[in-house]
Design goal:
By secondary structure, the chain is of the alpha/beta class. It folds into two domains: 95 residues, Rossmann fold (3-Layer(aba) Sandwich); 205 residues, Glycogen Phosphorylase B (Rossmann fold), CATH 3.40.50. It is built from 15 helices and ten strands. Strands 7-6-5-8-9-10 form a six-stranded parallel beta sheet, sandwiched between helices. Strand 3, helix 4 and strand 4 form a beta-alpha-beta unit. Helix 2 packs parallel to helix 3 and helix 7 crosses helix 8.
């Protein structure tokens, strides 16, 4: 966006903090940046505003923009269909066009009086131009004869600390023979040296079984294309894995307090077909919500153990009906995420912005 002419008043990375204590610690600086942004809006008064995701800041910006009479288009909806539904009134009051990336979101908003359009998910449109397996192996010193498993523990340090250890134990559990290799795509938000330190610390801490080599790679799409199956922390990465078509298992772990609160607070509307499992858990993986049924196994909290993940992965690594069925199901999910018609998701958002300018 900056290359296209965007003038940045405030950098998003300067105000994007996760967790209660982290936000409180940085609150003075965050609020100072926010005030600078609002002052720029008042001084320059844009003709239209495009808000992207980031609800904690953008809901407040939408209020300021409404007071200034600036029309607002919002791209990538906050997940009000899962929780914090009281914020729906803010969308109704402050947002002129809501451009959503999951098909059930359009029906959810329209039933509640919001001018919403499903534009498609941008990840579903990105063409995959992978290098050959041999070139990929040569780049990272991999053995192309091995079966590769991808491990995606999350894009934030807190997620990695919660998920990586059990993923590495899964690698130990699977690698009783030397047939498997392990790929760990490094998110752009993570420091490679820090991630290597976490892996090496885990390697030193476990003497019972040797940890197989974990190879850090740059491009998640390439890794997923060449991997036989994957273990993926719940989040946006599950959509990427689904559109690539890589069979996978969803995992996640948070604090017990957060988990109990989420089970109490998360309630899906009628527009989402979702049933609780035998443990009382509603599906959280976006692939299952889009499919309207459980096509990918979810191992959360106490069920997220190396033994459970390895048991769920084995049928996906072998040729057989479970693997074939999941590949077909993931192709169906990708089809549901593609834009309708000939325009791309971004073109449809651009058209919505132009229509607001024309009003």
């Amino acid at each position: 966006m900056e290359d296209a002419g965007l003038e940045r008043v405030v950098r998003a990375e300067d105000v994007a903090h996760m967790g209660i204590t982290e936000v409180l610690l940085h609150m003075p600086r965050i609020y100072g940046k926010y005030r600078r942004l609002v002052a720029a809006l008042k001084r320059r008064r844009p003709d239209v505003a495009v808000l992207i995701d980031f609800p904690d800041v953008n809901f407040r910006l939408a209020r300021e923009l409404k007071r200034l009479g600036v029309p607002v288009a919002w791209f990538v909806s906050p997940q009000l269909w899962a929780w914090k539904r009281r914020r729906l009134r803010w969308v109704q009051q402050r947002v002129d066009r809501m451009m959503v990336i999951f098909p059930f979101e359009e029906a959810f908003y329209r039933a509640r009086g919001v001018n919403a359009d499903f534009v498609g998910h941008p990840l579903a449109e990105i063409p995959l131009r992978p290098v050959s397996r041999e070139d990929f192996a040569a780049r990272y010193g991999l053995d192309p004869a091995k079966t590769w498993v991808a491990l995606l523990p999350g894009s934030r340090q807190k997620e990695v600390l919660a998920n990586l250890g059990e993923m590495l134990e899964t690698a130990k559990a699977l690698s009783q023979t030397s047939e498997y290799g392990y790929l760990l795509p490094v998110a752009s938000t993570l420091d490679v040296a820090w991630l290597k330190h976490q892996i090496n610390a885990h390697r030193r801490s476990g003497a019972e079984k040797k940890l197989p080599d974990i190879v850090l790679v740059e491009d998640a799409r390439e890794a997923l294309f060449h991997a036989r199956a994957s273990v993926v922390a719940s989040g946006t990465a599950t959509v990427l894995v689904a559109v690539v078509g890589n069979p996978f298992v969803v995992v996640y772990r948070v604090s017990n307090m957060t988990y109990r609160a989420a089970k109490y607070l998360v309630k899906y509307p009628a527009e989402i077909s979702a049933e609780a499992d035998e443990f009382g858990n509603l599906p959280v993986g976006m692939v299952n919500l889009v499919a309207g049924r459980r096509v990918v196994q979810e191992l959360l909290q106490e069920r997220f153990t190396a033994e459970n993940v390895a048991a769920a992965l084995r049928p996906l690594l072998a040729d057989g009906p479970e693997r074939e069925r999941m590949i077909v199901d993931l192709a169906d999910v990708r089809a549901k995420l593609l834009p309708r018609g000939s325009l791309t998701a971004i073109q449809r958002v651009a058209d919505a912005v132009e229509s607001l300018l024309a009003d």
